[in-house]
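Minutes, project check-in
Item: structure for the 354-residue chain
Input as provided by the requester:
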Amino acid sequence: MQDSATTASRPSHRTATAFEQYVSGRRGIVEGAVFFLESGDHIEEVLHAAEPCDIVIAPLRHPDPRTIAYDGSFLEPGDEITLGGRHTFELQDYVAVPFTTFAGPTVVRQFSAVGIAAFLSDADTARNSGVFVGQLLNTEVLLDSWASSLAADLIGDSLGRVHVTRHGEYRDGPDGLLLGSVGDERADIEATAAAGTGRGRSFAEVVDPRVLEADLDDRPWFGRYLAALDLMRGWEGAPPRPAISGFGRHLVAVLDEGGAYPSILAADAPFLVTGDGEEYILVDRVSHRRLRLGVDSARAAECLIATSEEFEATALLATELGTRVSRVAPLVRALQDRFAATGFDVTGYRRHGS
């Protein structure tokens, strides 16, 4: 006999993951696309367009097993929604985040060009000074449409979510690119989504996507910033005031100078995080592995991540410390052996740019 608690948790997990995909715009959290309906008026047309693996979140109960019912509203700051009778989320405006204390699960949305500008400005502050908006690191917070700021090749297939307005419009998020309207075939919706995969598509009604695309081009490290937020938000027991290497500064100072070793890493490269500057934690977001390192080993790890090659990493570390390569080579070799033994891969993440 199956454990009843385990059986009951399956619909709850399905609801939570489907809503996360709808909110974030990130593909692949659930198998199909997630449709979110402002009104139940269009439920039959949407179900007709949806595929068997899709999920439809609607403000009514429906016998179709693809549907998840919700109560409440989710359009304006302060609105609350309860999904499947169990999961309740509040909606807040990004511009209010620094002044907000979160009492429970909260979705933070950019409702205006002012919100988008604040989002970019906060990212600049984190990049330049290492100071993050503390509320964005809260485990209760979901950042709306964050995947829209990533290049299409980082987020998978073209159709991950469809927001259905009360007027019957299909959009990529509440203020996103127009994908079609109720009555359109699924293939037509997918084709429009595939043609509009540019960054900023989820804010098309708020700001000109071309302007936002240019702003993001000026910040080639933005994917790394989003990854840092995601890492810290999902890390229970993280340092209360984390310092993340690459935000504000690096342990290895030459990496802040650009040159042969640019400071921009791939979004999924491991992170070095510390709370007191004496002990570092190397965190792999992909495998969820963590490894505690002293300062010397953390410097060596940073060199390995930056160069993706043991010999170059050894030379870089020697330059940083003002010593001979032969003095630091045993440390780098020992660290490589430790990574291999624990399943850590710190190579392959070097990017070009500054």
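Outcome recorded: The chain has nine helices and 14 strands.
No further action items on this chain.
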